[in-house]
Specification:
The protein is an alpha+beta fold. It is built from five helices and ten strands. A six-stranded mixed sheet has the order 1-4-5-7-8-10. The chain has a two-stranded antiparallel sheet with strand order 2-3.
């Protein structure tokens, strides 16, 4: 590369980057699930939505109606899980989380009221699960509520090791449309009806 005044910069290649997967660069798990849900709706496969966080607005700045800015708000009640909807006549409810850990997923990332909610959904015939992305490993897993509860009830550990995900969860692959085809695994959970 030639710079002004004739200065030349020598660029050396130091690593072979041919094996790096850039598939998820710049996208969060939530945005990928949202894109997947939009695709499922477009093809009339499922109707699953991101639940809004319940907040109460207490202070708004109104310089004009089209430029209103929320200045102060607070959470009214603890939210349940991130997503819910319907697929093949079944109610679907799940939580999506990301972790930078290479070895485990900390259970404190899921609140007790969310675990209780997932149990209630499953007890009443719905399909409940969590989706966990290990960002540094570029691996995303769907863990059924049944396997989540099995771990919680049979272990005193405060985190779920990656080995448990590899054994008991389903690895979700990245794609174009949908970005994350988690319904392929949901089909296995509901018996392919």
């Amino acid at each position: 590369m030639n710079y002004p005044v004739g200065i030349k910069k020598i660029v050396k290649a130091t690593k072979d980057h041919s094996n790096i997967n850039y598939g998820n660069r710049g996208m969060t798990l939530e945005s990928e699930i949202n894109l997947s849900n939009e695709y499922y709706q477009e093809i009339d496969k499922a109707y699953i939505y991101k639940k809004p966080t319940p907040i109460k607005i207490t202070k708004v700045d109104y310089p004009s109606r089209d430029k209103a800015v929320i200045k102060e708000a607070f959470f009214t009640v603890p939210s349940t899980t991130d997503y819910n909807g319907i697929y093949k006549g079944k109610y679907i409810d799940f939580e999506a989380k990301e972790t930078r850990s290479r070895t485990s997923f900390t259970l404190s990332n899921i609140h007790p009221h969310q675990i209780n909610h997932l149990n209630n959904v499953e007890r009443h015939g719905g399909v409940a699960f969590i989706i966990v992305r290990f960002t540094t490993l570029n691996e995303t897993y769907l863990l059924s509520n049944e396997k989540l509860q099995e771990f919680i009830n049979n272990s005193d550990k405060k985190s779920i090791p990656i080995s448990y995900f590899k054994k008991e969860a389903r690895l979700l692959s990245d794609g174009y449309r949908p970005r994350i085809d988690y319904l392929r695994v949901v089909d296995l959970l509901i018996g392919g009806i």
